[in-house]
């Protein structure tokens, strides 16, 4: 088992870097998810006896790598969950996509339905359809692909992957959403690269960042 990559920890929160290929939470009856891995780390690092309180504030798809925020106290959990609902936690991704978008920056708006293991495009007003919004800008054009910075406004199931695919520029390596280009680094070419929020207890402004090279090279 690889060592847990801890970015920040205090009495109320934990920020870790999730590798692709590992689920944020374990499937029922299993203990191979990031949450269980983090609980084992806390138990050892802080010499904890008994159960460890730890809850993810958001989740990343198994194929996606990047920053994950956990609450270590009930006070932090309730406040962070409220902040997430009120969109006071900023989440920025880096995505390597196929082709080159016509516009250097802009927004994508779709309605998505949570289907069977994938997000489906839907018409406004369709049963179960939820509005999905993200902003993007092109950072680099390394070849036949484009490196985008993507800022989530809503946080729907597979949102970035589904919206970029519907736009005609799927994430490299994401065969589920139509990518034809291989990705050799594991998972897909999508990383949760920046997390910004106000500490739920101390009220300090926090910002955590991982670069593209740190994530994949």
Kindly describe this structure.
- The structure is a single chain.
- This protein is α+β, with helices and mostly antiparallel strands and 217 residues long.
- The chain has a single domain, classed as Pseudouridine synthase, CATH 3.30.2350.
- Helices cover 17% and strands 35% of the residues.
- The protein has 4 helices and 11 strands.
- Strands 1, 2, 3, 4, 5, 6, 7, 8, 9, 10 and 11 form an 11-stranded mixed β-sheet that branches.
- The longest helix is centred in the first third of the chain and has 12 residues, at 34-45.
- Roughly how many Å is the radius of gyration? 18 Å
Architecture, CATH level 2?
2-Layer Sandwich
Secondary-structure element order, as H and E? EEHEEHEEEEEHEEH
Q: What's the overall geometry?
A: globular
Number of DSSP-assigned strands:
11
% residues in beta strands: 35-45%
